[in-house]
Amino acid sequence: MANELSKATGRRKTAVAHVRLVPGEGKWIVNGVAVETYIPSESLRDYMNQPFAITETMGKYDVLVSAKGGGIAGQAGAMRHALSRALCALDASLRDALKKAGCLTRDSRMKERKKPGQRGARARFQFSKR
After folding, report:
1. What is the CATH number of the domain that holds 58?
2. What total of structural domains would you count in the chain?
3. Cα 123 to chain center, whole Å?
4. Burial, 40: exposed, middle or buried (Cβ in 10 Å; 0-12, 13-18, 19+)?
């Protein structure tokens, strides 16, 4: 895209979001759909817009997102992370405010894998002495 300003990748748990910032009036397009349709929860949409609110850049950019993996909440967190990174790439002076608010921290909590010969990640089969 010719008028693309910045792009970044964000992650949370197993969700990955690729964000592109374009000059505009603050519209979000997620996987080709309006954000209100893709993420019906108002609180998650507010969570995703948090970097804009912190940096006082609300309504200056349109956000084009490609999100996959995880669930809706994980993807919303990944979008927030990617948006924060994209804003930092545009203006390095915004980094301190975003870092202080925790927007640049990647949430690495993932489901632990199931171990071989066991019931689950930590659960074991019941021990029987006899």
Report:
1. 3.30.230.10
2. 1
3. 31
4. exposed
**Which residue in 62, 55, 67 sits closest to 9, CA to CA?**
67
pTM of the model: 0.88
Q: Which residues contact 57 (CB under 8 A, 6 or more apart)?
A: 87
Q: What is the mean pLDDT of residues 45-64?
A: 93
- Return the H-helix or E-strand segment holding 34: strand 33-34
What Rg do the C-alpha atoms of the chain give, in angstroms? 18
* In-domain check, residue 113: no
Range of the structural domain that residue 63 is part of: 6-100
Tens of pLDDT, residue by residue over 63-116, are 999 999 999 999 999 999 999 999 999 999 999 999 999 999 999 899 999 999
Q: What is the DSSP letter of 13?
A: T
